[in-house]
What we know:
Elements: H1 14-17, E1 21-25, H2 29-41, E2 47-52, H3 88-95, H4 113-123, E3 136-140, E4 143-149, E5 152-157, E6 162-165, E7 167-170, E8 185-186, H5 192-195, E9 203-206, H6 210-221, E10 228-232, H7 260-276, H8 281-288, H9 292-297, H10 301-319, H11 324-335, E11 339-352, E12 355-362, E13 367-372, E14 374-377, H12 392-399, E15 418-420, E16 426-432, H13 438-441, H14 447-464
The chain binds flavin-adenine dinucleotide (FAD).
Flavin-adenine dinucleotide (FAD) binds at residues 25-31, 51-54, 60-62, 72-74, 142-143, 171-174, 211, 214, 381, 390, 392, 434-435, 445-447.
Amino acid sequence: MIGALGSSPSGKRRDDVRNARILIVGGGASGVILAAHLLRADPARFDITIIERRPIIGAGIAYGTDEPEHLLNTRISGMSAFPDDPDHFWRWLQGRGPLDGVDCSDPFCFVPRHLYREYLKDIVAPWLGPDGDGRLHVVEGECVALREVAGGVAVELSDGRTEIAGTVALATGHAVPAYAPDAPYSGPWCSREELGIQPHGDVLIVGTGLSMVDNVMQLRRGGHQGRITAVSRRGLLPRVHAPSVPLKLDPADIPFGTSVSFLLRWLRQTVRWAEAEGGGWRDVVDALRPHTQGLWQAMTPDMRRRFLRHARTFWEMHRHRLAPTVERALREAIADGQLRIVAARIHGVETAGDRSAVTLRRRGGGEETVVVDRIIDCTGVLRDPTSGGSHVIARLVDSGAARLDALGIGIEVDPRCAIVGADGLASKRVFAVGPVTRARFWEITAIPDIRVQCAALARTLAGDVQY
Ligand SMILES: Cc1cc2nc3c(=O)[nH]c(=O)nc-3n(C[C@H](O)[C@H](O)[C@H](O)COP(=O)(O)OP(=O)(O)OC[C@H]3O[C@@H](n4cnc5c(N)ncnc54)[C@H](O)[C@@H]3O)c2cc1C
């Protein structure tokens, strides 16, 4: 907290020194990786506090699962927290000794997600009290509001506590939908116990992406016998990982700022060309990864809207891939008849007692009604950041300290990740990282992008914080 103003032994003013206190709101992957970058950059300078509403850090929505079938969907080589040290996670895994039941002999394999949570905790261990040097603190609590005050930012917690720091970084992640306990719907990241489905209960999963696959794996591992129907408008499944040799794409080769239909034509042509050369679509998609933020930023709001409506599903099913073992297990679930994928829209839901009758209007014509015991919402993470259980973003927007982008998918930030207020001015003290910044960066949900963003923000803050 703020001490009395005056001079420190080094002759520097204490009110400046306190600016080296940085509060990070959200202790998921983004918050922890940012803390690690700040503390590595200049440990003597920073005093970091992570405010996390869950009892543990490093879990967030992705890495809290203990299910062994819930694998990382990114290879180990892409999951290092440090972009300048891509083998860091691989070395950590090797140092940890043999992994029970995990077949992983090189950095191109896929390991259970709970290991990543352990890794994240370990990368900040040198600073985390009481065993570390005490420069990193974790406060368990929910941040409900923050406001800039003279010389700093006051962060209010739901239990009435207030923390004050020179700088705040929002790492609040994805807006998680909240469901009433008696609703027929469950969120996408519930444990088997939370789902509360009887072994023979029938399940409808809305969405056919990676979270649907997680739920199917979890249900089957628990011995679930009931039928599982997964529905999405196109019924497309994520593609599987396979070795790729990304093309060398020069920025001059990429049609920045063109229409979405031109971009898609160019993509298809480039894939055909890669195939003719003996490669495949993965080589093109992987080659585009370093340029996707630039492509997004070159789009007008209308082009972005078109991309989200017409091209996003197509992009995401190629971009976010399944580990090969998970894909095999998914195929088995379809082949043995437990899982059915339907391309349809939901036309209506009628709930009577514990069961729901869901009418599906199939793509290409026809209707069917499925009667299920549970509906799991796996429609994806692209949500208005003011929705869901976290109120801090909504209050920032209401107060004018932040503003939503034209599409309502994130808050606006400047190139340095400072949040932009309703007046169009960038804050000098409040920054954001991770999915909450997707309006500016779009591809900012996976670790390979988040770690680069955290490294850049740490450099910015190391430069800004003055003694
Ligand atoms: C199921 C799933 C699997 C994934 N697998 C991978 C993968 O294998 N590889 C990959 O690269 N990416 C993966 N991702 C992408 C994922 O988005 C990122 O890797 C990562 O989870 C983003 O972390 P985050 O900290 O930004 O967000 P989140 O994981 O959403 O964490 C945000 C944290 O902030 C806390 N919080 C929010 N609001 C407040 C508040 N007001 N006060 C206090 N605390 C708050 C939350 O409790 C949470 O712990 C996956 C995503 C999902 C959903």
